[in-house]
Amino acid sequence: MNQAQDTRLDWRTAARLGLLGGVVTLYFGAIGMVLTFSVRNLLGTFINVGQILTVAGALAAGYLVGRTFIEAGRRRQVIPMGLLAGFMAGLPPLILVIMGTLFPVNPMFININDELVQLITFGLGPVLGSVALVLLSTVMGLVGAALELMDERPRRALINGVLWVLLLGLFSENAATILEKFIGHAAVRWMFQNKSLNPIAGAVLFIITFGFSFLGSGDRARQKWQSMPPEAQQQWRKYFIVLGLLLALALPWIVGQFLSQVLFIVGLYVMMGMGLNIVVGYAGLLDLGYVAFFAFGAYTMGVLTSPQGPGGGILNFWAALPFSIAVGVLFGVLLGFPVLNMRGDYLAIVTLGFGEIIRVLAYSNWLAPLIGGAQGVLGIPSPSLFGFELGKPEYMYYLVLVGSIIAAFIAARLRDSRLGRQWMAMREDEDVAEAMGINLVQTKLLAFAIGASFSAASGAIFASRLHNIFPNSFGILVSINVLSLIIVGGLGSLPGVVVGAAILVGLPELLREFAEYRLLMYGILLIVMMLVKPEGFWPEAARKRELRGEEEWDEAAAAPSSAE
Amino acid sequence: MDAILIAKNVTKRFGGLVAVNNLDLEIQHGQIYSVIGPNGAGKTTFFNCITGFYTPEEGKIIFDGHEIQGLSTDHITRLGISRTYQNIRLFSNMTALENVMVGEHPHLKTFWAEAIFRTPRFVKEEAAALKEAQRLLAFVGLKGVGDNLARNLPYGAQRRLEVARALASKPKLLLLDEPTAGMNPRETEEMIEFIEMLRDELGITILLIEHDMKVVMSISDQITVLDFGTKIAEGKPIDIQRNPRVIEAYLGRGAASGLGNARQAAARPS
Fold first, then answer.
1. 8 Å CB contact of A557 and B146
2. Three-state DSSP state, A107
3. Taking a C-beta distance cutoff of 8 angstroms, is the pair B181, B44 a contact?
4. Does the interface predicted TM-score (ipTM) exceed 0.95?
5. What is the pTM of this model?
6. Nearest to B127 among A440, A543, A559 (CB)
7. In which domain, by residue range, is A206 found?
8. Which residues of A touch B144 (CB under 8 A)?
9. Are residues A171 and A143 in the same domain?
10. What's the domain range around B260?
11. What kind and span of H or E run contains A67?
């Protein structure tokens, strides 16, 4: 860092960051997020998500201030500057208190009301409460800054401990259903009271997670892993995959029906994400109408299997599935043709239009005799296997699990082949790719077709789980969702698809009360992601093959090389 | 006739601008043939006509007995022409090894679905492709860096990688667009040796665009000089150096007459 920057770094920086944090809090309060979130208790009945949200701005400001000053080599100023930032962060929320108590702003800001004031002043009354709020913010700013002063190990342990307690508190209902199977009803009732974590249980949990983290078992495991020879790593990787599969198989029976349904939906999006990942992540074709193929799969399944549909239920799920996929592929190719010469933004616009056309067609009276128009297709039967009906979410989860695994397998195999290289070369530079002898038409159409097939299969499963499908299930938001999840997970990365789906699809399902703010959170997450971690949560690693790959292939082929 | 590439009356226009005007040339097997000329003379446009990026309005380009004007780039590549670019155009987010393997594309035969099931044929072909790519990397002096992303390689290595990628398609004719641009004298020296080795060891015919006169004069068998899209001279390096029209194109009219006379005067006694 250069000297000029250093000298400009003073108390004003800290004050500015603090104010920023406070304004964020003010905003969250004014739009009603703090109040809505306060219904979820975290620890006992006295810490809820709303309160966390109230002080998070101060904490974050303190943390940022701490980091800025330490990076500039001014450790001694960290504590006072953190205090200042926290204090400043406490001021903007006071506007909420003033507006809520002194002025009748209810007609304009319906969310700034007595209840909110009560909440953020901790029920102490406006004056005393305001003082308490600012004090608490100041302390939080201090804590945030002090975190940066700590050594790496205790800091990580502390953060881990707090996060675990908060997470378990946040998802206490879901955690309770899971834990009940292992530690019994009575223990669970004691651990989770009032839909939140019992404070004593929280303390125990904190000590355990803190201890584990502090002793650094994760670190040691990583070091051990890195010191292992590659063959041993391969071996262990296989064990982990088997273990993961077993866990995936047991999952619905551990987590219960509600979470199985959530997992099912996540699985549907994983399948779609695997497909769109090929189109966007590998081939670099920005497709905003991806939901269309999902719709084709769903409607084909509906029309062919529903006894009330025009098909009269002539086929069962398994017989109709290939048709669903085939229709998806067909339209994938049909869409591909007109957009062969389009790039980037233009392609995005056309595919966006394509997706909307399909939705509008599904609504239209013109196609209503076939697909029901606004009434949709009703009475789609559940799939069954050897006379055993798979209607329950636990079983449907298996179906989507198998689908996701097949999709991931195909995507991984193709990625490591000539076709995968064709796609990536086309993504990097279309002209040069063509000059390398790559047939762009074929390469693009294959990307669209294979991508569409995953989505269509996902749609078919979706239809047979929901039994009734309506055009409004296939809106633009589904396309945006899938695109966002592969970006958040890491474009071009297969594990990234799963991580992205879990975060962007699974979490909102678990936080149903906050559905109102879903898109806002989405936006915030995407912006923060792009600023802080643009490569995604689980980015694709460059494959190492020149030095390591030789053995891998040699055993498989005694091919005479054309070399020397 | 032993010509590998013949251009007949090739003309390429952009609106009213004639970028390449009625160009004729003939490249023999195993030659290092250079096209030189001032900036904007139409050299790269001519390259783009040969490789199919542009279709010339008039004229014929005959490669190895095939008329190739107007064919698509991938088709022309499969016939055996390969190129590098003036401003390096690698697949920057792929590894060096993958870049070369993309270059091998025209020679890989397996159907894409075979990759899903890893048929023996696919595994064999992929292993051979990997070996070949490793060999090519070693050939251009990039052994050991194959797992780096192309964009992380130093400049000189990127140039070499581009050549390796071009070689992977086993071309009969290799087009190099300013291969020594931005190189220091030592790197340039290495590149000259490298280009000569390509011709001598692999028997590849080379068509070169180059600004560095030292490079052009030391390795070319034959040179064509373009100015405003028109061929103004053709011949061996020694003839080109003496040609007054060439000197004029490079240095301006006044300089040309003076310099040309001086050269002739100097040449006369010997």
1. no
2. coil
3. no
4. no
5. 0.86
6. A559
7. 165-238
8. 546-547
9. no
10. 238-270
11. helix A49-71
